[in-house]
Amino acid sequence: MFSTELAQTLLSGVLMGLIFSLVAVGLTLIWGIMEIVNFAHGDFLMSGMYISYWMYVLWGVDPLLSLPVSAVLLFVLGVVAYRLVIRRILGAPMLIQIFATFGMMILMRYVAFYFFKPNYRSIQQTLLTGNIDLHGVYLSIPQLAAAVGAFLTTGAVYVLIHRTRVGGALQATAEDREAAALMGIDTDRMFTLAWGIGAATAGIAGSLLSTFFYIFPEVGGIFGLIAFVAVTLGGFGNVAGAFVAGILIGVVEAMAGYLYDPALKTVFVYLLFLGVLFFRPQGLLGVD
Amino acid sequence: MFAAALVYPFFFRQSFQQDLAIKIFLFGGLASAWNVLGGFTGQVSLGNAIFFGVGAYAAAVVQTEWGWTPWAGVLLGMAAAVGIGVLIGYPCFRLKGHYFAMATLVIGEVISTLFMNWKWVGGAIGLYIPIRDDTWKYYQFGTTKLPYYYVTLAFLVSALVTSAVLLRSRMGYYFRAIREDQDAARSLGVPARRYKLAAMGISAALTSVGGSLYAQYVLFIDPHSVFPMMLSIQVVLIAILGGVGTLWGAVVGAMILIPLSEFTRIYIGGTGSGLDLIAYGLLIVVLSVIQPRGILGFFRKAGAA
Amino acid sequence: MKRRFGKVSGMAAAVALAALLAVPAAAVDTVRIGAIYPLTGPAGATGAELKDAITLAADIVNGKYDLDLPLARTQGLPNLKGAQVEVIFGDHQGKPDVGQAEAERMITTEKVVALIGAYYSSVTTTASIAAERHKIPFLNPESTDPQLTERGFKYFFRTTPYDDLFAENFFQFLNDVKKRKGAKISSVATVYENTNFGTGVHNAIKANAAKYGYRLVADVAYAEKGTSAIAEVQKVKAASPDVVMPASYTADAILYMKTFKDLNYVPQAILAMDAGYISDEFKKTLGKDGDYVLSREVWALDLAKRKPMIAKVNEIYKKRFGRDMNGNSARSFTGFLVLVDAINNAGSTDPEKIRESLEKYRLSGDKMIMPWQGVAFDPKTHQNTEGRGIIVQLISGEWYTVWPFDLASRDVVWPMPAWGKR
Description:
Chain A is mainly alpha-helical. Chain A contains 11 helices and 2 strands. Chain A has helices at about 1-35, 40-60, 65-85, 95-115, 140-165, 165-175, 175-180, 185-210, 220-235, 240-260, 265-280, and strands at about 130-135, 135-140. In chain A, helix 1 (about 1-35) packs parallel to helix 5 and helix 1 (about 1-35) packs antiparallel against helix 8. Helices cover about 40% and strands about 15% of the residues of chain C. Chain C contains 12 helices and 14 strands. In chain C, the strands form 3 sheets. Chain C has a 7-stranded mixed β-sheet with strand order 7-6-8-9-10-13-14, sandwiched between helices. Chain C has a 5-stranded parallel β-sheet with strand order 2-1-3-4-5, sandwiched between helices. In chain C, strands 11-12 form a two-stranded antiparallel ribbon. Residues about 1-25 of chain C have low confidence and may be disordered. The interface of A and B includes residues 94, 104, 105, 107 and 113 of A.
């Protein structure tokens, strides 16, 4: 009995963690390339969730199918955010950058609030429903599908960054902006791309999440904070690091809640985070 | 301007107007306090709510547990805040820039959660400070806001005075050196960590006083109201709005942001649509883009301190 | 001559005196009442419902409606020369200090004669402190924290019954179910958010469980609005309680039900303490998955079977706002009518007179849409002593009253069917 529950907790933690990973990946991409902490990232996620929701309600499209739409729209949103706001504060002190994205966060969140009201919404009938019973361990199929989707997307981003030419250019820009510019890389384009991809991944995560999580304007807050922790844990700019960190956080949260006290489970995540920060400041997989 | 502040309550007698001023003074003071660490010394902390909450709880607990005067709580709070500040600073000051900021943010959340589950201080239920008749000893006034007004004003003034003194002192000089280039400062013999801790301590103590005053004004505190992340961020926002690292920036920022948020809530927020928060967000974005050096940036020539 | 002079001056004096005494009644055109509710923030959806309820109540007072409710059949307040009531709404955003500021603003700037609000117990606390200081009556229709009426306030009045009573109702209900269904119920578990509300409910349940002889086998507190409830539900599952008693607001209520389903877990019954479970969102979002949940309630639509007026009022509300009323909106609605009725009884907008009127106020159960015996405020605490709770069950998207059995509209389904068998 005990081991079934432990397995359940572990697996559920991993599933959730994969979603955290995906959200963190987009954030770490943006951070790695231009050293800007995007406070509005959670709200990109929220936007993705609403896009899927409305496509479901208005046209009956399942979130897994509206996922590409979400990705494209969020890509555009990311580019717009970069062009309108971020580009103008590239040289500003870190603090200002934090606040610009923070302002975007509030703006996006409350525009959603205004149009969609604070009601909690949920997508009831998805293509995949039900759960699998593995010897007493129950895995919800929508959650499983979302986790798989997150895993695949993260993998795709990883491949993009590490195995394509564009990815190479992104990496170069991240390493040394001036040198990359000297080598003929259009840094402005790289930044735009980073924001687009970063936002798109958050949008995809949103679509995936909408299959089993409830949707409301402030949902970005919860996931945003976890994404920050994941990015820092994994090393700013490190996609693989964000992936590992996301899963780790999911597992730690689940285990802490089960083994110890659910009311304090996020504290454990935070303590883990602080521990890594103090003893390995570059993150688990980061390079100083 | 100080004279204007002194006589304001006699021209503006409405409770709401005085409340507005009190909030401006409080947040101005908090932002000034933050500025010592964040603006002068360049260590961006996003966890100043920790000290605010500590001060608030100190003031409340001494009354609910031992029946003392809240002024004792103010002192206790300051001591606790400095202690906690140093405790946090010691490991955290090893971190740079964004890492430091995130660490303070997270520590703030940890402390908030801990207080939520700490039964002795009321846990999630919070603490209700017993209502008494108007007295200075217990710093409570039911029928008039004037004492609150002047005490909070005094708070702001002391924060400003502290900042001014620091600006011109050797300590302040070291702070700025650390902000500009910590390694260079170190190589010149400035014990960086010691001074960062000092900045943290001063900032924490001042913020804690603000928290204690708040507790007495509202007479009810719980972790949600005194430890939230939004509070830390709001304070920092005010400092930035006015102009980080300047003496008056905090005041200017508070004078703009507080009325803005209060008025939008009153005139627009009442419809429940969140328009007030949209306005808030828009302002922040526009300002960051147009004038990152804050309002005071409009009045300063580039290159001034 | 002298006599006539005397007569004339006597009459003149009489006329003068009459003129002096005939002070024209203060022409009161509107009676202003402040309403403080969470119009934004996590309870924004509920705040909207409550605002609608009060808006409707104000319309009923101001207009002419053929309903057996106070002031419905007249236009405005008859004892104040038909003065209309005007509601000033304020948003407290779920924050106690904002609630306090709003209360002060309404009293001093908007010059309201009374306040109503605020749903969240923590905000009601601070807002009513402001009212007490300014000596303005504050009527609270929805907050259930016990200490609200234990502060010895003179201007604070509460119409809704509170958590201690409701927790007691739970165990009375369980006793009744044992008798009627022969069920074996001996253990309960609480799952609650660690806020003011949840912790208060847990404490009340703990105390009453002991009193009624039930074992509390699990006590799971959680931080609200988390990302996953798996750990918490597992803890509950492991303790095998007969009945699970959750106290959550909407977001978590939905999350937990979904998690129960995901983990394929049903106890004999889920008996919730209102809040998120009776919200519109809950039943809309979960659909069939929310079925068979029990909740304490203060009100249910099917009480209309015994009180047709309830259906009539709900019709009006639904037509106007597009949804049914629920326990929250019904209480705000009723509280507002009580307040305005008391003002009418006082025949004055003087806050002191309103307060006295409230102290003496009585309303019988058949003149309200609540299933209470009536409204009468305890002289010391100003708590309504004639209120009571009911237990309702959600079946196929509708809430049915199942207890007290003599008010029930259908028989309770016990135990909860397993997930696969629905």
